[in-house]
Design a protein that fits this description.
- The structure holds two protein chains of two kinds.
- Chain A is an alpha+beta fold.
- Chain A has helices at about 1-110, 115-130, 170-175, 225-270; strands spanning about 135-140, 145-155, 165, 180, 200-205, 210-220.
- Chain A has two domains: about 1-110; about 115-260, 2-Layer Sandwich (Beta-Lactamase).
- Chain A has four helices and six strands, in the order H-H-E-E-E-H-E-E-E-H.
- A six-stranded antiparallel β-sheet of chain A has the order 3-2-1-6-5-4, with helices on both faces.
- In chain A, a hairpin with a 4-residue loop joins strand 1 (about 135-140) and strand 2 (about 145-155).
- In chain A, helix 1 (about 1-110) packs antiparallel against helix 2.
- The longest helix of chain A has about 110 residues, at about 1-110.
- Chain A is rod-shaped, with a radius of gyration of 54 Å.
- In chain B, helix 2 packs parallel to helix 3 (about 60-70).
- By secondary structure, chain B is α/β, with parallel strands linked by helices.
- A five-stranded parallel β-sheet of chain B has the order 2-1-3-4-5, sandwiched between helices.
- Chain B is globular and about 35 Å long.
- Chain B contains five helices and five strands.
- The chains are: A alpha+beta, B alpha/beta.
Chain lengths: ~270, ~120
C-alpha cells in the first residue's frame, strides 16, 4: 500500500515535471517565434536604412553633378561671349589689316618711281581704284602765275578743267588754307561743276601746298566714304605731294643735266675745229 | 595649290590683289597686264582661277572672258570680274558671256577672299 502510494506520488511528480517541461517548451517556442519576428524586423530595418543611405549618396552625387553642369554651362556661356568678342576683334583686325594693305600699296606705288608722268598715273590709279572716284583732276600750283593748273584728269577731259586762281573758289581756298574740303552731298549724279568739286584734297609737303586733287563725282557703286578713304586722303595729301614734288625736281634736274652735258660736249668738240 | 591669274593693267591693283591672295593658303599669283598677256599666261601655266579687270589696253576683260569660254582647254576656269563699272547692266553682260562673279571697285578685300575661297573649294 505504502509502495503503491509511493509510485503514485512519483507518477504525479513525473507528470508535473512533464507538464512543466511542456510549458517550458511552449514558452521556448513562443520566445523563438518572437525572436524570429524581431530578427525579421531588424533585417528589414537594416535593409531599409541601407537604401536610404544609397539614396542620400545618389542625391549628393546628383547635386554635385548638377553643380558641375551649371558651372560648365556658365563657363560655356563665358566662352561663347569670349568667342563673340574674339570674332568681333578678328573682323576688326582683318579690316585694319586690309586698310593697312591698301595704304601700304598706295604708299609703295607712289614712291616706286621718279618719273613725273608715272607718279601722276599712280595718283590717278589710287583715286580711281582705291577710293572709287569717277571724275576728278589733279591741279598743281604754278608759282609764277599763282594759279592751279590741271595736270592730270580721269573721266573728264583736261581741257574741260579751268585754271583756278590761288585762294579763289573751293579749289583755290583748299590750296590756300591747306584744309581738305568735303561736300555734304557727295552723290553728284548727272552734270558736274568743275568749280564745285565734292572733295578737294590739298597736296602738302609739311605746310607747303603744291597742288590739289579735286573730285567731281564718285563711281555709281560708291555710296559713302569709309575710314580707310579718309586715311587714303591723308596719305595722298602727304605722300602724293612728296612723290610729285621729287619726281618733278628729278625730271627737271635730268633735263638740266642733259642740257649741261650737251653744252660740255659742244665745248669739248670746239678746239678740234 | 591653286594658281590665280590676275589680269589688271594697274600695278597698284595687281599688288593689292596679290596681297589679298597671299591670305589664301598655298595660292600662287600670276600677273598679266591685259587680255593678250593673259592668253599667253594661260597657254604657259596651269591656271585654276582668273581675276580680270574690264577696262584694259590691248584686250579688255569681256573679250578675254568670251575667248576663255570658247576654248575647250580653259572653258571651265572660273572667272571673277573686278571693275569700276558698277552698273547692273554691265554686271549682267559680264555674267551672260561667261564670268562667274562680278565685283565692283573699290573692292572689299574680305569679300574678294571669300569669293575666291568659294571657287577654290569647288575645284578640290
Amino acid at each position: 500500500m505504502e509502495r503503491e502510494t509511493s509510485i503514485g506520488k512519483k507518477a504525479d511528480e513525473f507528470l508535473q515535471m512533464f507538464r512543466k517541461g511542456e510549458e517550458f517548451t511552449q514558452e521556448l517556442l513562443k520566445e523563438n517565434e518572437r525572436l524570429r519576428f524581431k530578427i525579421a524586423q531588424l533585417e528589414e530595418a537594416i535593409e531599409r536604412s541601407g537604401d536610404e543611405a544609397k539614396i542620400r549618396l545618389y542625391e549628393e552625387r546628383i547635386k554635385i553633378t548638377e553643380d558641375e553642369l551649371n558651372s560648365i554651362k556658365e563657363r560655356f556661356r563665358q566662352v561663347e561671349e569670349e568667342n563673340k568678342d574674339f570674332a568681333a576683334k578678328y573682323v576688326e583686325v582683318e579690316d585694319e589689316n586690309n586698310n593697312l594693305a591698301n595704304l601700304y600699296v598706295a604708299s609703295y606705288q607712289l614712291h616706286s618711281t621718279l618719273d613725273f608722268n608715272e607718279v601722276l598715273r599712280i595718283v590717278l590709279e589710287i583715286v580711281i581704284n582705291l577710293i572709287g572716284a569717277e571724275k576728278f583732276a589733279v591741279l598743281l600750283i604754278e608759282e609764277k602765275t599763282n594759279e592751279l593748273i590741271p595736270v592730270g584728269t580721269e573721266g573728264i577731259s583736261i581741257s574741260d578743267i579751268p585754271k583756278v586762281r590761288f585762294g579763289e573758289g573751293i579749289i583755290g581756298t583748299a590750296a590756300k588754307e591747306g584744309e581738305s574740303y568735303f561736300s555734304e552731298n557727295i552723290h553728284n549724279r548727272g552734270s558736274i561743276s568743275t568749280e564745285n568739286p565734292i572733295v578737294c584734297i590739298p597736296l602738302k609737303i609739311k605746310e607747303h601746298v603744291i597742288g590739289v586733287i579735286a573730285i567731281y563725282s564718285l563711281l555709281l557703286q560708291k555710296e559713302k566714304f569709309s575710314n580707310v578713304d579718309y586715311e587714303l586722303f591723308n596719305l595722298l595729301a602727304g605722300h602724293a605731294a612728296t612723290a610729285i614734288f621729287s619726281s618733278r625736281l628729278y625730271t627737271q634736274s635730268e633735263r638740266k643735266l642733259t642740257t649741261i652735258q650737251s653744252f660740255l660736249d659742244m665745248l669739248k668738240e670746239k678746239p678740234r675745229r | 595649290m591653286p594658281n590665280i591669274l590676275v589680269v589688271e593693267d594697274s600695278p597698284t591693283m595687281r599688288q593689292l590683289i596679290g596681297f589679298a591672295m597671299k591670305r589664301i593658303a598655298g595660292s600662287k599669283v600670276i600677273e598679266a597686264t591685259d587680255g593678250v598677256d593673259a592668253l599667253k599666261k594661260l597657254s604657259s601655266e596651269k591656271i585654276d582661277l582668273i581675276l580680270a579687270d574690264i577696262n584694259m589696253p590691248a584686250m579688255d576683260g569681256l573679250k578675254l572672258v568670251s575667248l576663255v569660254r570658247g576654248n575647250p582647254a580653259y572653258k571651265n576656269i572660273p572667272i571673277i570680274i573686278i571693275t569700276t563699272e558698277g552698273a547692273e547692266e554691265d554686271k549682267k553682260r559680264a555674267l551672260a558671256i561667261g564670268a562667274n562673279a562680278y565685283l565692283p571697285k573699290p573692292i572689299q578685300t574680305q569679300e574678294l577672299i571669300k569669293l575666291v575661297n568659294g571657287f577654290i573649294s569647288q575645284l578640290q
